[in-house]
Design goal:
Strands 7-8-6-10-12 form a 5-stranded parallel sheet, with helices on both faces. A 4-stranded antiparallel sheet has the order 2-3-1-4, sandwiched between helices. Strands 9-5-11 form a 3-stranded antiparallel sheet. It is α/β, with parallel strands linked by helices. The chain folds into 2 domains: 2-22 and 152-357, 3-Layer(aba) Sandwich (Rossmann fold), CATH 3.40.50; 71-148, 2-Layer Sandwich (Alpha-Beta Plaits), CATH 3.30.70.920. It contains 14 helices and 12 strands. It starts with a helix and ends in a 16-residue tail after the last strand.
Length: 373
């Protein structure tokens, strides 16, 4: 019975979160129906093909140009050896086995290592010139080299979710014992609505987190009962509060607080008195715990790198997250699924974690043709 209720909570939360991710596909359908049913698009299609042929001709030349090849970009290098989750080996041993290949790559690039991962996928990330790719791919043991896409925060209107509390009251469950990972730009654990009610059974206690940190060499720490763990993967420190200047629509002052919006929609838990005074909010899983996995830097208002996000996904799985939410977007992302990031996402799903993602919501595919990715 308990497992059934937990599964029901997960499914309902996913459905609610998914509502905010549907706008771009709906807009794409609207674009497709812009012409009358009997409108002859033959000439338009012909003109479009000719236009794309010219574009590709220009792109082909620019891709081989010296400025393009000499540009330093962030890359993820995936190795052929399996990850820890596939073998039963420890992540430490998988990362240690990367040393020889890492040294060869760093000798080629002359740059510094950014991230090493070995739990869900086996590889590492760094900065390299595009002209280095061929030499790196030729190193024995290297499976794939891919440029790392950057993701941005998606700010969606959650007004349609205001009846979620009624759903929890009807079912008699409010997320007790659930752990939701918020991979975003941070959560303020001191916010008055970031709380568990007295008597709520938490999935992770302080001692649980201490043991998990020790067993998995995690870099974050325990914050509160509501936010049992957090880490800043972008700045490599334990400051999980959003302090980056923004100025984006929906920002609070000069800080976007996007992660707090998402955390509030998911599991804010204002007291009955604050709700009565219109001085707080209650989310869809008010009694759930949240992992504050910050992947946006406090030093800039730009995006989040996919390799940092992969590290956050790995740690979320290690900590036992039931759901991972990424209200992020990227104009195109990876052009295929054969890369470490996509493999890590798949492995997290196979491990039993539900992932809710809005990546690619801009409606633009890799070829920039205006199609939904």
């Amino acid at each position: 019975m308990k497992r059934w209720m937990k599964k029901t909570v997960s499914i309902i939360l996913v459905l609610f979160l998914a509502v905010t991710l549907l706008a771009p596909p709906m807009l794409a359908q609207a674009r497709q129906s812009a012409f009358p049913a009997d409108f002859d698009t033959t000439m338009l299609r012909k003109q479009w093909r000719e236009h794309r042929a010219e574009q590709l001709k220009d792109v082909s030349g620019s891709l081989n140009s010296t400025p393009y090849m000499d540009k330093a970009v962030r890359i993820m290098i995936e190795l052929k050896a399996p990850a820890a989750v596939d073998t039963g080996r420890s992540e430490k041993s998988v990362i240690a086995s990367q040393q020889s290949i890492r040294e060869q790559v760093l000798k080629i690039t002359g740059t510094e290592l950014l991230n090493s991962y070995g739990y869900l996928a086996n590889g590492f990330s760094l900065t390299a010139k595009r002209s280095d790719f061929q030499e790196i791919r030729a190193i024995p043991g290297v499976k794939n080299v891919a440029e790392v896409p950057m993701f941005y925060m998606d700010m969606k209107n959650a007004a349609q979710m205001t009846h979620a509390v009624q759903v929890w009251e009807d079912l008699g469950i409010k997320g007790e014992g659930m752990l939701v990972s918020i991979i975003d730009n941070g959560i303020d654990p001191s916010h008055k609505d970031m709380r568990l009610s007295d008597g709520t059974t938490a999935k992770l206690t302080s001692s649980d987190v201490t043991a998990l940190i020790s067993a998995n060499s995690l870099q974050g720490k325990f914050f509160t009962e509501k936010i049992p763990y957090g880490y800043n993967y972008a700045d490599k420190n334990q400051n999980i509060v959003d302090e980056a200047l923004s100025g984006q629509p929906g920002s609070i002052g000069d800080v976007s607080m996007h992660g707090m919006h998402v955390a509030g929609i998911t599991a804010a838990n204002a007291t009955d008195q604050d709700l009565a005074d219109s001085d707080g909010i209650r989310g869809m899983e008010p009694e759930a715990q949240l992992l504050a996995m910050k992947v946006f830097s406090n030093d800039q208002s730009g995006g989040a790198w996919a390799d940092d996000i992969l590290m956050a996904i790995q740690d979320s799985v290690k900590l036992g997250a039931d759901i991972i939410n990424m209200s992020l977007g990227s104009p195109s992302g990876f052009s295929d699924a054969d890369n470490a990031f996509s493999r890590g996402v798949a492995q997290a799903t196979d491990a039993g974690t539900l992932l809710v993602m809005s990546a690619g919501n801009e409606g633009l595919a890799y070829d920039s043709s205006g199609s939904t990715s």
